[in-house]
Task: structure prediction
Amino acid sequence: MPKIGIVDTTFSRVDMAKHAIDTIRSLASDVEIVRYTVPGIKDIPVAAKKLIDEEGCDIVVTFGWVGKEQVDKYSYLAMSIGLTMVQILTNRHVIDVTVHEDEAEDERKLYYIAVDRARKHARNAVELLFKGGLALRKYAGKGLRQGYRDVGPIRE
Amino acid sequence: MPKIGIVDTTFSRVDMAKHAIDTIRSLASDVEIVRYTVPGIKDIPVAAKKLIDEEGCDIVVTFGWVGKEQVDKYSYLAMSIGLTMVQILTNRHVIDVTVHEDEAEDERKLYYIAVDRARKHARNAVELLFKGGLALRKYAGKGLRQGYRDVGPIRE
Amino acid sequence: MPKIGIVDTTFSRVDMAKHAIDTIRSLASDVEIVRYTVPGIKDIPVAAKKLIDEEGCDIVVTFGWVGKEQVDKYSYLAMSIGLTMVQILTNRHVIDVTVHEDEAEDERKLYYIAVDRARKHARNAVELLFKGGLALRKYAGKGLRQGYRDVGPIRE
Amino acid sequence: MPKIGIVDTTFSRVDMAKHAIDTIRSLASDVEIVRYTVPGIKDIPVAAKKLIDEEGCDIVVTFGWVGKEQVDKYSYLAMSIGLTMVQILTNRHVIDVTVHEDEAEDERKLYYIAVDRARKHARNAVELLFKGGLALRKYAGKGLRQGYRDVGPIRE
Amino acid sequence: MPKIGIVDTTFSRVDMAKHAIDTIRSLASDVEIVRYTVPGIKDIPVAAKKLIDEEGCDIVVTFGWVGKEQVDKYSYLAMSIGLTMVQILTNRHVIDVTVHEDEAEDERKLYYIAVDRARKHARNAVELLFKGGLALRKYAGKGLRQGYRDVGPIRE
Result:
């Protein structure tokens, strides 16, 4: 049975993993889900690596929440480089779902962004897991967005 | 038969891969093309790595689309570092075609940049694939540009 | 007996490790603690790596102190990338406790932030050490903060 | 016979490699030179790696040209990190000669900077190749500059 | 006999290595010192790596000098990431002594910073070499500074 890893944080202000797991369950009943919670975004890469190496996950989805300060953005950069390295070293996808606190002034808006992004990327993960690099071909260049409405392709 | 990998995203607003494949086909009938579509730029490096490791691609061309925000630029940086690592670890070229949404105000202009860049780098990839490091010698220092008109060399 | 590594610096203006060790001792009497002091933050990653490789530590907590200048932030970024690599290469958590001198104007405030952050992350480390990725599940998405009061989850 | 690798780009507006090769030839008749031309700076690290791994080069000199925009600087950073990794993984020097388009308003000035930098670093490469870490000892702390006049040491 | 590696540059305007070596000699007569001079900071990481791998150095001290421009800071970042990787891959400390030209307007002040920083970090290296992670324990959290006067710990 294919295995999806989920990494989330106690720093986040929205339980994005819950929504993602809900989406995964609705799309595929035949997957095992392993969830791993860490304190903050800089703890995410090793958790993803452990889920792949030690739990045998085929794909991982991570849920980060990033503050507004410049140093938070540097932490985001370090995490992103780390997640890229995890993927390169394991040849497994780690789909990163990150919400930045300065994406919206309004908490309600931020909540919507987080849930929408989590659900859509959960769907992406399921697609990649079951159908690989061909799965998303039909959406190539289509201007899809997660957390926002799709913007669509530029007309020729 | 030599194999070219293509990685593109659903985030992009232009189907650059289509144009690149068209160019490759017009230049070389004897290459196999494998295409891999991922959600966004941070998913590109591992896809390129998988095309090299698992599909045996000799060279890869990637098509990224980057938003206007500072965090998008950090994601671009993480992807760029990742693509560099993929190349170093495999000794294979990964030619990166990236369009930044703030390169042009006008959508039509952005579309032109994307297609021109995709086609020119597809040509670069074919040259490198068939003739290696000597292929582009005649253009060394010539101020070539992709997405824009060539600026040419500075006159002595 | 499980082993926790502690890395701190002479650059720091607060002995955070002392408070972290105090917290660890209060939570778990059955752990060995190995402490390693280095000059500054850029010396931290290798110390963490050595504690894992040479001392057999199961988890490491690091205590950094970062100046106000832009170059200090770049050093923070280099350290963060380094710590991520240490974790990825060893599959061990390295919980990073960093205080930035510009987090507070007032020294007393800065002291409070440092001690609170050290104690809370020491607790996180103990939780992860003994209960793994399930330990923090109940706090996922709860908006926990270290150095500050928890902000809590966003209400749906 | 020792082997020097040369990597340059079609993006550059000055054929720096020509001047560097000229300098190398004037200093050492007994070296083999292998030249590799790539599209832009992000293609440089893997070319340097291939020259070392596949062509057996003992040292490599690379010639990059960087645009004025912030994203160009991030590409420069990714290339620089990549070149550092190539060196660390191979234990070979890769001397990087980079010209930034915003170093001078005037094209003539930029041309002078590029040629001067290329020639001086070609000399550095020859010195390191034949005499190793002792070669440049006499200039340690002397405030040498490439592309500009030497500024000299600070007087005690 | 333990071996200390020294890496410095021709770009630097102060011969920091001379002062560091003087300090090392005054503290420990029983160490071998190997010195390696490179052009600039981006050449430092591989030199440190070679001193460890090829010369068997137990610890390395590096002396960098960084210009005032933003691209100089990116080079500093690339070097710092590189030095971190060298340390992680070898499990050896590389103590980095960097002076930024914009740390002081006055050349005399800059000279003082460079020498003070070089001497104090040379002492740190000797301490770590002979006594390991316990050597600096007594200064943990004490607010030590190199290049400036110690600021001391924050009083509780």
Remarks:
- The two ends of chain C are 43 Å apart (CA to CA).
